[in-house]
Design goal:
Blueprint: H1 2-50, E1 57-60, E2 66-72, H2 77-90, H3 92-96, E3 100-106
Parallel strand pairs: 2-3
Antiparallel strand pairs: 1-2
Helix pairs in contact: 1-2
Length: about 130
């Protein structure tokens, strides 16, 4: 009887492993699809109100925390405030629960460096050689 149970366990173990791997792959796919759906939802909301102001990248950490990365022009605070307001509306339930992180990167045009002024060299004074 013990041999029969051992044989059944050995036979069922690979099938159980395959079912477990298939379930894990399904969970990973669902998380990826949810991430893409949230990114598309946020991008559409921003583009609907402001046009192509920024392109957010949405990720989800293992603890269920949503992380939104955006490049925004810091020299236009009104635009940044509007983008943050839209993001807060899209992620309202997560923001209320403290499961939302927003990472902003500056996209302001870099200030052009001041051109270097050429130095005008004056010719050296002629050396007077005293002949003795």
């Amino acid at each position: 009887m013990l041999m029969l149970l051992a044989g059944l366990a050995v036979t069922a173990l690979p099938a159980l492993g395959m079912v477990l791997v298939a379930h894990l792959m399904d969970r990973v796919r669902q998380r990826r699809d949810a991430r893409y759906a949230r990114q598309i939802e946020l991008t559409d909301a921003i583009h609907e109100e402001l046009g192509a102001a920024t392109a957010p990248v949405v990720t989800r950490r293992l603890g269920g925390i949503w992380v939104v990365h955006m490049t925004v022009p810091f020299d236009r605070p009104g635009l940044v405030a509007t983008i943050l307001d839209i993001t807060d509306r899209v992620f309202a339930s997560e923001a209320a629960a403290g499961r939302l992180r927003i990472v902003l990167t500056d996209a302001s045009p870099a200030r052009a460096p001041q051109p270097i002024q050429p130095r005008h060299l004056r010719p050296a004074a002629p050396a007077a050689i005293a002949a003795r």
